[in-house]
Amino acid sequence: MTQSPYSIPLDELVDSARVPVAEQVVEQPERRFYGGDWSSGVILAGDSGCDGGGCD
Average model confidence (pLDDT) for the chain? Predict the structure, then answer.
């Protein structure tokens, strides 16, 4: 077999794939929930075991 013109030594491949630790951390914005407060009211179909759309 002949050497591929696109092959690179393993050490170069590993070095090119390494990412500094400081760049590995991605900060995510705080999660915000847009919805009603379930603790303040009636939960629909809370006692029937159905999803509120009827049991089949």
Answer: 74
Residue 42 tokens, joined: 């009636």
Instruction: Output 52 or 3, whichever has higher pLDDT.
Output: 3
Separation of alpha carbons 55 and 11, rounded Å: 61
Percent of the chain having pLDDT more than 90? 7
| Alpha-carbon span 55 to 48, nearest angstrom | 9
Q: Are 43 and 36 in contact (CB under 8 A)?
A: no
